[in-house]
Amino acid sequence: MSQTFDIVVIGAGPGGYIAAIRAAQLGFKVACIDEWKNAAGGPAPGGTCTNVGCIPSKALLQSSEYFEHARLHFAEHGISTGAVRIDVPQMIARKDAVVRQNNDGILYLFKKNKVTFFHGRGSFARALEGGYEIAVSGAQPATLQARHVIVATGSRARALPGVPFDEERILSNDGALRLQAVPKRLAIIGAGVIGLEMGSVWRRLGAEVTILEGLPTFLAAADEQIAKEAKKAFDKQGLKIELGVKVGEVKATRKGVAIAYTQANGAEVTLEADRLIVSIGRVPNTEGLNAEAVGLKLDERGAIVVDEQCRTNLPGVWAVGDVVRGPMLAHKAEEEGVAVAERIAGQHPHVDFNTIPWVIYTSPEIAWVGQTEQQLKAAGRAYKAGTFPFMANGRARALGDTTGLVKILADAVTDEILGVHMVGPMVSELIAEAVVAMEFKASAEDIARICHAHPSLSEATKEAALAVDKRTLNF
Ligand code: FAD
Ligand code: NAI
């Protein structure tokens, strides 16, 4: 017997579970299906982000940062600890506990909002008149019917052609978050967000890390000045990043992995490592959906084709998050999920891609929103730039972390903020002020005239805004 809902959401990652909750708040009868299993085979809603992405990576970044602080920085504060050791299985167990808290939190939120959760795989069975039939397979098979379907099936790690992940020696983000010991030599292919974050974790814990990047430019999506500053800091930390390489044969060896590659200067070399993380981007999850059964249109990458409102080619079928175009970020997935639920309810929400912040949780952290200086130049837009270094910020000095800067780009005529770029301590938090400012179409002068608490890192943002008008007070 089939069960009828107003909306069925397939996938309980940040896109899906947030869409389900918002839809329930709006009065719809909602089901959410997710197939992720925890170690005991039970449900683990939260998707990539909660299980093998945002949350566990930040847990390990925190542990490894504490370790590095204790090892390198406590002494200057007059704190002695004796030999500092890392118990990797304990660090991983803590990370797993953090993940479980988040899984449980989502199950609680489903109950609180009366979202019916199904643990299993959801796929299209057939189109009905004015709706769809969705099959749930797994431990509790079910048949659901709904007028609207929101697909939020996310993405998975892309493997190198012919080099499948074994999660022992050749690791995706999943295996990289589960290592039970620090590898002596860790190779990473792809100096993108995962490569830098995971490379930072294992380097801080003592691994010799080499990151091989295909592009000749480091962090090509970031503002050049910020990327340069970050690269300088990573070089100093001993994170070895080779740019412009061409990866050839990758072979699992008796003890580890051998990666043959061509360096930017044409030299052919082989890198021997104990473990390899492949972080070269992600592919959308559409294989298990049985999209053909209803004629759901996919693009050549397997992503679901949607318009700017997340409508697919089928009436009543929507798609959000990593499974569609746009940045693969949890908060982008969430915003799209909320917007779709509200659109189904007849509201008119809008997700502005230009004000979606990017954060890389390395040390120093990197964060930005809006246009980079190179994008503005390419577009021929006249702009003014203001920068302020953390070196001149009192709170940063007290923290003992003065790397980096804040940079604000504003329109040369109107002074409207066009982009804000940061590298330095806690900029993952500082970027929120820039996002708010841009959403409200603030000028640099607006930020310059706002009272910021002293001493705080946020004063660097105010000073960068003052710098746009060449009137910094503390530099
Ligand atoms: P997902 O989170 O991938 O969730 C999709 C869910 O759908 C999964 O649970 C999957 O099992 C389920 N599913 C798929 N197919 C089916 C089916 N047919 N039936 C039932 N269930 C199905 N983003 C950030 O913004 N900040 C970060 O710090 C960050 N860190 C990251 C770190 C790593 C290591 C990785 C890999 C990613 C990180 N991301 C981060 C990206 C972020 O995880 C994704 O952008 C986000 O999870 C996308 O959400 P989603 O809901 O679209 O998909
Ligand atoms: P990415 O797109 O960030 O980086 C991939 C890198 O690999 C690029 O620099 C690319 O040039 C390089 N590359 C691709 N193919 C290559 C090859 N064959 N040889 C050498 N280099 C190659 O992808 P990544 O790091 O896998 O992360 C996937 C996505 O997950 C990110 O784009 C991001 O959206 C999300 N994410 C977000 C985080 C955050 O917000 N803090 C953290 C981690 C992931």
UniProtKB/TrEMBL annotation:
It is found in: Cytoplasm. Pfam families: Pyr_redox_2, Pyr_redox_dim. Binds 1 FAD per subunit. Keywords: Cytoplasm, FAD, Flavoprotein, NAD, Nucleotide-binding, Oxidoreductase, Redox-active center. Its EC number is 1.8.1.4. NAD(+) binds at G190, A191, G192, V193, I194, G195, L196, E197, E213, G281. Disulfide bonds join C49-C54. GO terms for cellular component: cytoplasm. It catalyses: N(6)-[(R)-dihydrolipoyl]-L-lysyl-[protein] + NAD(+) = N(6)-[(R)-lipoyl]-L-lysyl-[protein] + NADH + H(+). Residues 5-337 form the FAD/NAD(P)-binding domain. GO terms for biological process: 2-oxoglutarate metabolic process. One of its GO terms (molecular function) is dihydrolipoyl dehydrogenase (NADH) activity. SUPFAM superfamilies: FAD/NAD(P)-binding domain, FAD/NAD-linked reductases, dimerisation (C-terminal) domain. Its cofactor is FAD. FAD binds at K58, G122, T153, G154, S155, D322, M328, L329, A330, H331. The active site is at H454 (proton acceptor). Residues 356-465 form the Pyridine nucleotide-disulphide oxidoreductase dimerisation domain. InterPro entries: Class-I_Pyr_Nuc-Dis_Oxidored (IPR050151), FAD/NAD-bd_sf (IPR036188), FAD/NAD-binding_dom (IPR023753), FAD/NAD-linked_Rdtase_dimer_sf (IPR016156), Lipoamide_DH (IPR006258), Pyr_nuc-diS_OxRdtase (IPR001100), Pyr_nucl-diS_OxRdtase_dimer (IPR004099). The active site is a redox-active disulfide bond. Belongs to the class-I pyridine nucleotide-disulfide oxidoreductase family. This is Dihydrolipoyl dehydrogenase. It comes from Tepidimonas sediminis. The lineage of its organism: Bacteria, Pseudomonadati, Pseudomonadota, Betaproteobacteria, Burkholderiales.
